[in-house]
């Protein structure tokens, strides 16, 4: 695992629009992702994909690496759909750029690339607050906007309500809970040094039936580390 932010300072007058963004669909481009992660000097760029048949707002994440004959560009995947929609609908795509945050290549071939989206201050409009009857997934763009704009208390309050919805739906449909909402709460609690609350939300997640994916292992590892630190 490697972190890359020190090599990419945020330009003056810019701020983070979205933090800890995972490349969506990276498993479909695993080989190129492995090459990118193993490279020395590297960065990521964003590119619109207006001809995408599945999402008119699609934004590609391109991995760039320096070689002997110039820059090589590799397709890594996409900006998550909800974030891409905010960027495109807000008319700010031309103003934003990606800042490589973390890369990871596992012994089993697992790949992960995370990045930040940065742009001029005050350029991204605040997403509308979804109706109270809206599905919890419709709240994601606003949660991310609140987190990136320093409104963590409001983000936490909203996330706690959404966790209740996630668990209610999981019980009704027997599908397992989505981990993202618990993870965001844990991140916010850690940033505010609310360590008891961080432990409590991870333990709450641990007690749920879980949806498949990499989320359960990530949160289980986080919980195990916290418990190990607190062990007498």
Detailed description of the structure:
This protein is of the alpha+beta class and 232 residues long. The chain folds into 2 domains: 2-120, 2-Layer Sandwich (Alpha-Beta Plaits), CATH 3.30.70; 136-230, Alpha Horseshoe (Serine Threonine Protein Phosphatase 5, Tetratricopeptide repeat), CATH 1.25.40. It is 38% helix and 24% strand. It is built from 7 helices and 7 strands. It has helices at residues 30-38, 81-89, 140-148, 152-173, 180-191, 195-206, 215-230; strands spanning 2-3, 14-22, 42-48, 59-67, 70-78, 97-105, 111-120. Strands 1-6-7-2 form a 4-stranded antiparallel sheet. Strand 6 and strand 7 (111-120) form a beta hairpin. Helix 5 (180-191) packs antiparallel against helix 6 and helix 6 packs across helix 7. It is globular. The mean pLDDT is 89.
Task: Provide keyphrases for this structure.
232 residues; alpha+beta; Alpha-Beta Plaits; Serine Threonine Protein Phosphatase 5, Tetratricopeptide repeat; 2 domains; 4-stranded antiparallel beta sheet; 3-stranded antiparallel beta sheet; 38% helix; globular
Task: Lay out the secondary structure.
Layout: E1 2-3, E2 14-22, H1 30-38, E3 42-48, E4 59-67, E5 70-78, H2 81-89, E6 97-105, E7 111-120, H3 140-148, H4 152-173, H5 180-191, H6 195-206, H7 215-230
Antiparallel strand pairs: 1-6, 2-7, 3-4, 4-5, 6-7
Helix pairs in contact: 3-4, 4-5, 5-6, 6-7
Portion in beta strands: 15-25%
Q: What count of domains describes the coordinates?
A: 2
The total count of strands amounts to: 7
- By CATH reckoning, the class of the largest domain would read Alpha Beta
Whole-angstrom Rg: 18 Å
Average pLDDT confidence is 89
> How much helical structure, as a percent, in the residues?
25-40%
Q: Give the low-confidence spans.
A: none
Reported for the largest beta sheet, the result is: 4 strands, antiparallel
Largest beta sheet: strand ordering = 1-6-7-2
SSE topology string: EEHEEEHEEHHHHH
User: Which overall shape is indicated by the principal axes computed on the Cα atoms?
Assistant: globular
SS content category: alpha+beta
Q: N-to-C terminal Cα separation, in Å?
A: 29 Å
CATH architecture of the largest domain: 2-Layer Sandwich
CATH topology of the largest domain: Alpha-Beta Plaits
């Amino acid at each position: 695992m490697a972190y890359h932010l020190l090599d990419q300072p945020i330009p003056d007058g810019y701020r983070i629009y979205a933090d800890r963004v995972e490349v969506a669909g990276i498993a479909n481009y695993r080989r190129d992702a492995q090459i990118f992660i193993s490279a020395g000097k590297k960065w990521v760029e964003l590119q619109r994909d207006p001809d995408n048949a599945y999402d008119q707002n699609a934004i590609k994440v391109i991995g760039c690496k320096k070689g002997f004959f110039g820059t090589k560009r590799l397709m890594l995947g996409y900006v998550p759909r909800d974030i891409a929609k905010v960027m495109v609908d807000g008319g700010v795509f031309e103003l934003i750029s990606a800042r490589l945050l973390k890369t990871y290549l596992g012994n089993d071939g697992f790949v992960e690339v995370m990045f930040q989206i940065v742009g001029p201050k005050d350029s991204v409009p605040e997403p509308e607050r979804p109706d109270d009857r809206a599905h919890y997934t419709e709240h994601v763009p606003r949660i991310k906007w609140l987190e990136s704009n320093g409104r963590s208390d409001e983000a936490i309050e909203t996330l706690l309500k959404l966790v209740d919805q996630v668990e209610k739906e999981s019980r009704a449909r027997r599908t397992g809970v989505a981990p993202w909402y618990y993870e965001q709460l844990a991140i916010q609690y850690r940033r505010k040094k609310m360590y008891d609350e961080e432990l409590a939300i991870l333990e709450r997640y641990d007690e749920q039936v879980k949806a498949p994916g990499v989320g359960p292992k990530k949160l289980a590892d986080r919980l195990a580390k916290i418990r190990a630190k607190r062990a007498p």
